[in-house]
Amino acid sequence: MTLISAGKSLMSAIIEKLYSKIQGKEYSYGQLFEVINERNKQMEYSNILAASQEKGMVNRDDLNLDIQFERSNIDIYKIVRKGDYVIHLRSFQGGFAFSNMTGVCSPAYTILRPSTLLEYGYLSYYFKSYRFIKSLIIVTYGIRDGRSISVEEWLNLKISIPSKEHQLHILKVLRSFDLKIENEEAYASCLSNQKQYLLRQMFI
DNA sequence: GCAAAAGGGTGTTAGCTAGC
DNA sequence: GCTAGCTAACACCCTTTTGC
Fold first, then answer.
1. pLDDT confidence of A72, banded at 50, 70, 90?
2. Which of A91, A92, A93, A197 has the most CB atoms lying inside 10 A of its own CB?
3. Residue A162 pLDDT more than 90?
4. Class in CATH terms, A27-161
5. What's the CA–C1' distance between A145 and C8, in Å?
6. Residue whose CA is minimally distant from C10 C1'
7. pLDDT tens figures, A111-158
8. At how many degrees (to 10) do helices A164-202 and A3-20 cross?
9. Distance between CA A93 and CA A60 in Å, rounded?
């Protein structure tokens, strides 16, 4: 097991632990989120976002995927704003995606805008956790590709939300771990490049 | 070792329904 | 009749697995 995969496993365990111990006021998701259906009619945004299971909402250009679509159709795309959460086509497998940027996304997505009860990004880690994905089973229907999440039913589910101070504390802990893993990944990538370079030099 | 099949990830779009 | 919203079906590409 590499340091990075061990770090990721530890991160998952910490997320499980932190979010399972929360003692706060109970809210339904419907009280915490508003479903937004804002379309890009004025062609205000041209950067198209895609939901990746690993990194949340990212620029589609960064995905290295050749997706065929009519660019003139982006007026019907939905606007995702910074801080929004997105229910995407694979949410039943990878949880909900958090957006760190503003842009447009496929009309097949559901956009959730958090209320002021939530700190920026507070649920971004929880929505990717095994605990949360498991909880989606009761509001998921269909088989394989046809699977989708009943947003209406999900909005009725309950969750405990701690004070904003506690939310910030949890975020601080998780972000520091996240940063550590990112640094290790960057370091591993540098070492790999260096190895390739040295191997090339050996055979010149 | 290699080709084919299967599976996974991300998305578009056609068709249906409801509201105006 | 038009438009918007929703959903199932399907497209496309890449990676992994399987069988020979």
1. low
2. A91
3. yes
4. alpha beta
5. 9
6. A145
7. 888 899 999 989 988 888 878 877 877 777 654 444 567 777 788 788
8. 170
9. 20
